[in-house]
Amino acid sequence: MAFDRRAQKKLYSEDELYEYAVGALARRMRTVAELKRLLRARVEADTEYGQTLVELIIRRLKDNGYLNDSQYAAYFSALRRDNQKFGRRRIATDLKVKGVHSDLIDKAVNAAFEGVSEEKQARDFLRRKRLAKPRDQKETARIFRQLARAGFSTKAIFSILKKWDVDDEILSHLEDEPDLSGT
């Protein structure tokens, strides 16, 4: 008879689950939603006891200052802005995927980009990716799509491309492309 790991799921006590959660937070910052996903995998989340236990652990972590989505969003936004040179939309999308509430996302992203020029940020992104002035329509479209995926507005992208003296005909073709940035 084969050994089935799923049949013998370890049941965690409150203290063991709390220690596991603290260890997970020690390895890296997490949102409430991410931590809940981790904890639910350790308990029988479909039972009332499991749900209550997860909520109790989350409450303890918040009360002790170990878990705070607004601090996470602010830190994440600044890190992605400075290190990856991403735009507002990309950072907001990434935070939404991580389960941060939209009000917290708006506050964190607005605070992170206060006084930051979107065009300068896009130029920094291009430098980081080692992208130079495009030579043809194909390269122009590739740069346009990369900047859109990185979270920059079409206004900032077109401003950069116009300063690179990209042909107006190519720019008019790009205006017809589906907007990946959300505008």
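(ticket continues) Second input and output from the same batch:
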Amino acid sequence: MKSLIKLKPAFLLVFLSLYASISLSADISTGEKKASLCVSCHGAKGVSSNSQWPNLAGQQPTYLIAQLKAFKNGSRKNSTMQGMVASLSDDDFVNLAAYYASLELGSAGGDPALIEKGKEKFTMCAGCHGSDAKGRGNFPALAGQHPKYIATQLDNFKTGKREGGPMAALSSNLSSPEITALSAYLGSLK
């Protein structure tokens, strides 16, 4: 137990230095220019008009970088995204992540009764995704995301179409109506 306590400050120091290096080396205006590749799916200013694709505005930069790298190395499968990132460099990933993180995302709205039901289930998400659902480091922001996109991803984790360790276990405990309500709640946040 004592060694675990000693690891926490060391882990925090490494995480903070990684985050600081991402912030210091990022060029938001270069990221904005590179984002022209992303607009057709993820929308202008990172807000997608199609719930098939996630909003990127306000997303955690470390999460975006990790996902872009996963698409590039093939550990996350999506032929469109793998093609899009194939020619991008690590610097491009950092700049894109900084640009999207600098943008604000609003609420997707939703049915108040469904949102209230989803709020009850959110506590299981807050530990990783933050009490405001705006994410933490490698854990994505969920606030303001398309409810249909969130529901699809939860279903994909539940069925194994998408890998995600803890997400597979957590989603397996949710019924379809609970996934719908939780997704509505998360989408309603801004």
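Agent notes: The first helix runs from residue 2 to 25. Residues 112-188 form a domain with the Cytochrome Bc1 Complex; Chain D, domain 2 fold (CATH 1.10.760.10). Closing as not reproducible unless the customer responds.
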